[in-house]
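JOB MANIFEST
job_type = single_chain_structure
chain_count = 1
residues = 553
[input]
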Amino acid sequence: MAKELLTKVNPSNTLVSFSTMIDAITQAVKQSNVKVVYNYPGRPATALADNIKHIFPEIDVQDYLTNEFVAAAKGFGSSVAGCERSLVVFKDVGVNVACDHFYCMNHVGINRGLVFFISDDPSAWHSQNEEDSRGIYFNAGLPILEPYDQYSAYYSILIAYELSELVRLPFFIRTTGRSLTETFKPEANDLKNVNLPFAKDFVDIPYDAKNKWLSIFGSVEEDREELIKKQNELKKWFNKLEVNIVKGSGSLAVIASGFPATQLENENLVSNMSLLKLLTVYPLPEELILSFLKDKERVLVIDQGEPLLEMLIRDLAHRHGLNKQILGKLNGYVRCVGEFRDDDLKIAVNAFKNNTPVYSFPRHKQIAKAPAFKEDDGFRILVECVRDAVKETGCHPLYCSDAGQASRIPETPEIENLLHMETTMGCAISYLAGGIEAYKRRGEDIPFKGIAYIGDSDFFHSAFSGICEAVAKDLPMLMLLVDNQGAVSTGKQAHFGMKINNQIKQLSIKKILQALDVSFLEESNIMDKKNLTLKLVKSLKHNGFAVLIVHTE
């Protein structure tokens, strides 16, 4: 029989003053009775985990997890088996690592409230690419909230936990890096009459309930039908929450989600126009939007990233026979690339008023750029020693790296040519393996010496699988395992190769590699450049899979 737990807390409609999204969300997380935060560090999202850890030390913030897949799995386990609310935090590219779970959670559902806080990074200020993560949640049919200011961020957390339990689905709160660093006016608050839901009769389904928590062949169609019912229920809720705000008047209108909705007001671009600020992006609050569209001549849709909102609103209007001009990125009125800044929104609104598309927008004044290494930086010292060792051995290097510190190499004079391939985490060893094996299959000599930069946090995150294959085949390459004692690119958060606390056993990367029976395994330290260079030369001459662990502290 289902067991009702006595940890249910009625969300309060009383809020204090906030000037940042981070502070507002932190307070709402505590108010929602969240017990644990699961996180793999990555800017800009890590700022939230750091703030919760600082403000509310009683909340268990696990920012040392191996990767986002593990974080998402633990969130599901906390909800179903632990009957406890949790928050999962990571950045846009981390969604790619975790997304397998979303296509099962949407089938089997959850127990206690499970919310994913995701921060996308348009213009890639802290990332290897620009990605709109909303497409993944949308494709899984899972609800998306996109706060436009600090108070909508606060309420998005309270709403997400309650509705998560009412419909038994995980919720996704999508923000962007700009919105998390913005300072808002505390007195500017459009949300005066929020209709907060409350899952007052919530009962946990037993974790061992027969066939309930199985995503298997026989239940897929039934589960999908159930998901559609849940989406329809959410549409009704989203229509009556009073968090999607209509402002202004006129036959010309703008519908915007996320921080761009507030940018439009801050830049005074929507005077003499109607503005609909959407918090609930998916499923759409269809009744509200149809009512808004009814007397409008033209509508401009602005959302940060891919034109998801624009396509959903076009589809809604088409299904209901509304013959309205709905304009946006798809027809050249709104910039398609990068974070909205400079005059992007001004140009878009003027184009809309003139009913003339722009198509080509000016290049942004400032482009994201990794900072160059300082001369005394440990990673730079390592790369300089690699350069010298390569010169001494006369080999032809192919430098690969997982995402991380190495992205700064091309911006650093004198070593700017010592990186050829870098995309995502966990890629470098397998990139080299694929290239090496192509030459082997053709019976040709390998024309390069593969050199892979792998960070210590990355070793646990996603590099390990590729390492296992390379060791098993003893592929001729050099892996430089850079021991930074933390996730150095995101704030030196701990990992399992470090001392985290007295309750967590420290794992030795060296012992793990020894257990794999790596054919060549050595250690060195950037403090002894002569020894480091000698060992680099030795490892480059090894005709198999070689590992050099380099300590930077």
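[summary]
The chain has three domains: 21-240, 245-354, 378-551.
The two ends are 55 Å apart (CA to CA).
exit_status = 0
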